[in-house]
Amino acid sequence: MNEIHLLLLLHLLGATIWVGGHILLSVIILPQVWKEKSVEKLFAFESRYEWIGMPALAVMLITGVRMAYLYNVRITTWFAFKTPIETVISLKLLCLFSLVLFALSAQCFVLPRLKTNIEKLPLMAFHILSVTCISIVMLVLGSFVRYGGISL
Fold first, then answer.
1. d(CA 104, CA 108)
2. Is 90 exceeded by the pLDDT of residue 111?
3. Which tens digits make up the pLDDT trace of 41-53?
4. Is the pLDDT assigned to residue 1 strictly greater than 90?
5. What backbone phi and psi angles, to 5 degrees, belong to 74?
6. What is the reported pTM?
7. What is the SS3 string spanning the chain?
8. Average pLDDT, the chain
9. How far apart are CA 65 and CA 71, in angstroms?
């Protein structure tokens, strides 16, 4: 097994945990929370998932950067959109930045208020569904590497 294959396997394992957890949150947990108008299940899921979800995200970040370098996409060419592989990597990085902004917003503003105010649930639902959709988009973008990337 060569380095890129091992990195890809680790990256896919991280994606499985990250995307799968967010799909579970969106499709199973969020509808229950919405129906019961009780956020305890949401906070319980978050506390149980965070210990595996955040390391999975870190693994994807580390392996993704390393694979980018193995594909000769250096930090100096990120967001250049000159080659199909650079385009995939740049779009995935834009998605990652969006995820970070949603995470900061949720952790700093939405979740603290949601603990005492159920009226913040629609805003939290928007965050959850947005992160889930962005994560799926990242998964789809990653699949294009197999075909040499995408051209805009």
1. 6
2. yes
3. 999 999 999 999 9
4. no
5. -90, 165
6. 0.94
7. CCHHHHHHHHHHHHHHHHHHHHHHHHHHHHHHHHHHCCCHHHHHHHHHHHHHHHHHHHHHHHHHHHHHHHCCCCHHHCCCCCCHHHHHHHHHHHHHHHHHHHHHHHHHHHHHHHCCCHHHHHHHHHHHHHHHHHHHHHHHHHHHHHHCCCCC
8. 96
9. 10
